[in-house]
Request: fold
Amino acid sequence: MSADRRIEAITKRIVERSKPTREPYLERVRHASTKGVKRGALACGNLAHGFAVCSPGDKAALAGDTVPNLGIITAYNDMLSAHQPFEHFPDLIRKAAAEVGGVAQVAGGVPAMCDGVTQGQPGMELSLFSRDIIAMAAGIGLSHNMFDAAVFLGVCDKIVPGLMIAALTFGHLPSVFVPAGPMTTGLPNDEKNRIRQLYAEGKVGRAELLEAESKSYHGPGTCTFYGTANSNQMLMEIMGFHMPGASFVNPGTPLRDALTREATKRALAITALGNEFTPAGEMIDERSIVNGVVGLHATGGSTNHTMHLIAMARAGGIQLTWQDISDLSDIVPLLARVYPNGSADVNHFHAAGGMGFLIKQLLKAGFVHDDVRTVFGQGLAAYTIEPHLNEDGTVLRQPSPEQSADPKVLSQIEAPFQANGGLKMLTGNMGKAVIKISAVKPERHIVEAPAVVFHTQQALLDAFKDGKLNRDFVAVVRFQGPKANGMPELHKLTPSLGVLQDRGFKVALITDGRMSGASGKVPAAIHVTPEAVDGGPIAKIKDGDMIRLDAVAGTLEVLMDASEFAARPAIVIDLSDNEFGMGRELFAPLRRLAGPADQGASVLF
Reply:
């Protein structure tokens, strides 16, 4: 299947732009790809340390040069629902490896923090940088050079991007990502959002709010709304890092375990010791990255990936830009309605046809590249399936149906929910920003109103509670960028802004911070670059300045004389309150080194 000519054109320009970095990267990957087992480069003392605690049988196997060793990088912890299921995965992986004559060892653990727990709290200021810490932690685990392939156990917001950066940094190794799956459906997401807004209005108390939240987030697995965590799973599948159909199978089920066993055996089958060597750095290329961006648009995915995908691509020497992402959004239609873009959750999405149906529709229109490499060993068409369980406990794959089981959740390519992906870049005299409009009603795509400036999200919430925001306004929440305070998510603002919008006011948000995959019905220009702490134009805005956010034209402007605005000094504020507490002092070097949002907001690239 050939790709749409517009998709091909964008892919080709990414290829050309990337040549100065992609070609040296591939040279390094090929130089590191050696025949025989990787541990063959270790001296006897090195090797003895590496298998000291193994069983006699595994020691004998690892002492030779014919048995592959699989490194497990795990984000397990038992506080977070998405990662708790990973507790038992290493045992499952070791047994599956032994069945095909291999060995598996936990190479290392990586931190996994939850933005849901830290939302609106000081700890959120560590969140974005945890992605790069995760990449480095995974790198430490793999640096022992004991492994011929790796499996990565991770799910949530910064974990998967960090793990993918590590996988591409160790691009000479085959890598398979193994998800845990979403928790079963709890309280409907629209009902949870209703209770949040009632709480913001003071109409229900904390007890009612906690009850609703607990019914929503109630057991093992990923949160069921379509935020960054579930966008991650979609990306890993459409980019070929998952086994087909693996993304959205619930944890603790026989099918989930079968997919994990299968992923283990496949990882061992694609090492340099076999005939299907698939190093991650060569498998993932510009076409894979474009497929990921297309999937993000077609599903209304997380705004966080306007940074993560750029950083992930750079780890493989690929130069992706916001302009690429925005241009692809103009081409690719929205095919999924999953909260916050609709009332359904990811379990409903999976039941409606899930990833197999989605990929089939995108291939039909030429919106994704089929001629890519995947861990499954075939092109993307092999992912147009539904996973089931065989009687013998193995995975059975059946062709994805031609019709969606629920057209209100997952649509045919001929009848999309909207003509574009809804993730756009904005430019103007305030700099560059991104906006997600897939959940914003068309009549709210343009907002022109006076600015009300805040330097903390708490200041906005206090103004709301004091009744000072009952009017048309554009909230400018600045000094929330990577260098200022680590770029926390400002999702805590959503209920209050939603209440004001529901009261009939024209409301919008402009910030150099983040809003995450939960960006919803209020138009929000986020990731504003340059950020305020770098003296960006957002630091010049004053209360009362007329702001025009136009998601149709793709512009973000302060409506005043250009020379007057240019001459206005950028405000500087004291950020010392963000420097200590909850570990923030440990991240001071990262804040100083952080790159801009449009380049991935990374300390690594």
